[in-house]
Amino acid sequence: MTTSPARTAVVPVAEIFELRRSVLRPGLPAQTAVFAEDAAPGTFHIAAYDERGTVRACVSFFPEALPEEGDGDAASEEGATAYRFRGMASDPAVRGLGYGVAVLRAGLDQAAARGAGLAWCNGRTSARGFYEHQGFTVTGEEFVVESVGPHYRFTIKLPGVSGPDCRTPAVEFTAWQAGSTMTT
Q1: What pTM value is reported for the model?
Q2: pLDDT tens, residue by residue, 57-92
Q3: Considering just the CA atoms, what is the radius of gyration of the chain in Å?
Q4: At residue 163, does pLDDT exceed 70?
């Protein structure tokens, strides 16, 4: 872990864009790291900073209901009680030091504060251990995102909220809740 808790903050997308692009879309045009959801209503972006104020990890969250199996990425956003996240990236120089966990926890806290009962993502297969360690469950089969690679859908129930668009996964979201030292 980091020697002191990573400072996290809700920030404009411009604050995290270069890290997102360099980690998730290396060698590709910058426009490939722009997401349609970046400026959508309800979207927020989280950055984690080191002691010098350098962005070391980032993630973007936005309201989107969990798709039914077989729906692909289509989902009704009307009345959604779920938040999807994407664009989660950590600077390779600090991987394993807690910055990725810091942005994830801060984002899940923020989504819950905004009324979400569930958070989900389409995460790289190589990150399965990370997400499961944070209390997420895999839903569905592995699938391939063109030009990115194999993925799973990961879900986690957030505390205190439930609703019809919140399809309950097997794991409750409580593992990191107590004693969290992240700041937002």
Answers
A1: 0.79
A2: 999 999 999 987 544 443 333 344 899 999 999 999
A3: 15
A4: no
Query: What is the CB-side half-sphere exposure of residue 129 using CA atoms within 13 A?
Result: 2
From the number of C-beta atoms within 10 Å of its C-beta (0-12, 13-18, 19+), residue 79 rates as exposed
**169 to each of 28, 42, 68, how far by Cα in Å?**
35, 23, 13
Distance (Å, whole) CA 156 – CA 170: 8
CA 155 to chain centre: 10
For 70-133, strand residue ranges (E) read 82-90, 118-124
Q: What is the largest CA-CA distance in the chain?
A: 45
Tell me which amino acid residue 61 is. F
57, 48 in Cβ contact below 8 A? yes
Instruction: Return all residues near 105 (Cβ < 8 A) that are at least 6 apart.
Output: 8, 176, 180, 182
